Amino acid sequence: MWRHTTTITMALAATALAGCAVQSIHSGGQKSVPDRNEVPIASNFPTSTQLKLQAAEHWRRVASTSADALVRSLKNNGACVPSKGCTTLYLRRSCETTGCAPQACDTTFNRIFHNDFLTALLNHGYLVSTVPAANAPVVDLDIQAVSFAHNRPQYRYGGQAVEIGPGIWALRDVTSLMDKSGAAAPRTLDHDTNWFRTEFAAGPTPRNELVITVSATSGANTYLARNTAVYYTADADAGHYFCGLAAGRSRTWNIPVTGDCTAPRCSDPGGARQ
Predict the structure, then answer these.
(1) What domain range includes position 215?
(2) Number of domains in the chain
(3) Which of 62, 50, 68 is nearest to 112 (CA)?
(4) What does the radius of gyration of the chain's CA atoms come to, in whole angstroms?
(5) Does some domain include residue 85?
(6) H or E stretch at 173
(7) Quick check: is 195 in a domain?
(8) pLDDT digit string (tens) for 182-206?
(9) Helix, strand or coil for residue 272?
(10) In this structure, are strands 4-12 and 88-92 parallel, antiparallel, or unpaired?
(11) For residue 14, what pLDDT band results from cuts at 50, 70 and 90?
């Protein structure tokens, strides 16, 4: 059994006076913008999705995905394949790659990602040396946390526009529950309207993101394989990804403010204090 819901929001479109056609105003021909402009016009990229890290299990999955991509690239290039005798890799930490002091900048995420990535490499059949080994490819982890504006726009699903009459539009939102095989899925219990869009992370767009680059180089200092991935991180968890003062600056704080609330300034007509 599947559940089908339809939500229609009415909206009146702005139109010209009755009997008059709406005229488009163009400058420099039939284009919607002038032929000349001081700078290029800002436009949006095509819509894409980006995973949001919110648990240590997510970190493990990210490390496994990065290791899979690196190993796949190594094997496709024939650069280091266990079946052909290349079994040993040397794995360097992110702070060794970027030159920062491990004591001051080896974040919680860096340490756990390193361990999870190491486990994933071993599961792929590689031996990982604790010290640089002769002729062994070196695997580098470069993990960079970056912060953007705190008020970046967030996607909001608005349904499909449907014209139901001249100048009258509606937003139609139709959802059906289907399982992975395409068959009708069983109904969920109670109020299930939010169930339909659980693929989207709740809350505003995170201001913090994580750029993870893993690469393998040969003894001749040439790149053998490389992979880069970008993830959102929860703003409240910024301390896991940033070092020192940067973690404090990237964290969001709620500061309560208490003001004068003496009567009658903060009293309602019934005499209750606000």
Answers:
(1) 52-150+203-250
(2) 1
(3) 62
(4) 28
(5) yes
(6) strand 168-176
(7) no
(8) 676 555 555 555 666 677 888 889 9
(9) coil
(10) unpaired
(11) very low
Q: What angle do CA 217, 220, 225 make, to 5 degrees?
A: 20
The DSSP secondary-structure symbol of 27 reads S
Reduce the DSSP state of residue 149 to 3 states and report it: coil
Q: Specify the long-range contacts of residues 196-204, CB closer than 8 Å, at least 24 apart.
A: 196/5, 197/157, 200/155, 200/157, 201/52, 201/54, 201/232, 204/151, 204/152, 204/154
Task: Please state whether the peptide bond connecting residue 102 to the residue before it is cis, i.e. omega within 30 degrees of 0.
Answer: no
Phi then psi dihedrals of residue 77, to 5 deg:
-85, -10
pLDDT for position 133: 80
Q: Does residue 102 lie in a domain region?
A: yes
Q: What is the pTM of this model?
A: 0.69
Q: Return the structure tokens found at 176.
A: 């059906």
Is residue 28 a part of any domain in this protein? no
Residues 1-10 as b or e (16 or more Cβ within 10 Å = b) = eebeeeeeee
Encode pLDDT of 244-258 as tens digits.
Answer: 655 555 445 556 666
pLDDT digits (tens, 9 = 90+) for 141-174: 999 999 999 888 877 666 677 888 888 888 766 5
Q: What distance in Å separates the CA atoms of residue 225 and residue 89, rounded to the nearest whole number?
A: 13
Structure tokens at 205: 């767009």
Nearest alpha carbon to residue 77 among 182, 191, 222, 220? 222
